[in-house]
Amino acid sequence: MIETQNLTKTYAGGCIGLDNVDLVVKRGEFVFIVGPSGAGKSTLLKLLIREIAPTDGKLKVLGQDLALIPRKRIPYLRRNIGMVFQDFRLLEDRTAYDNVAFAMHVVGATGRIIPRRVSRVLELVGLSHKSRVKVGDLSGGEQQRIGIARAIVNRPAMIVADEPTGNLDPATSLEIVDLLRTINIQGTTVVIATHDREIVDYCRQRVLYLDRGRLVGDEERGAYSCAL
User: Fold this and answer.
1) Where are the alpha helices (DSSP H) in 33-169?
2) Binning pLDDT at 50, 70 and 90, where does residue 216 land?
């Protein structure tokens, strides 16, 4: 699913985002990426979706070499990667249904498939009863559930989540990570960058620890502190 060798990203001015990172994430894994601010977590996620390009090294995602992928192929790559954001990035003046359906319209889906699949994922995230409610009228936890529904509606092979519980209370955070675990059990690879020690310790999944751009810990069934 993900393979890197000596993956390096250096920004303008010489700031190092990642420094010679080697890792492999297999299909169906659930992986946390942890570390202090500036460790390289967001840089790695941006590289995975080809928002930025590596400076050096090898990066393969879904079998594609992202150092060589043509720009016109990037949208097709992203169709197989669902993104979940800390700040939700939803259309607040649209309904829950409309927000999820929009993700299908973007990739060219038409006809009866849209209402069927949108209804199915809203049921999965427990918000069928809120489908016609404007997103701006939903709670933070409900908005994040809509964000997850949007991320999975096109049936991606992988979900990449950047601090998905960062704006949520502890109880809601555990509900969100439980939902992501359910999606993972169904076969979707999940990669989460987080500062949230509680959800990492609660899940006991693989933990990758970054520090100043380097991968300094890799624990198969770890807690946040185990990767140090």
Assistant:
1) 41-48, 74-78, 96-106, 113-124, 140-152
2) very high
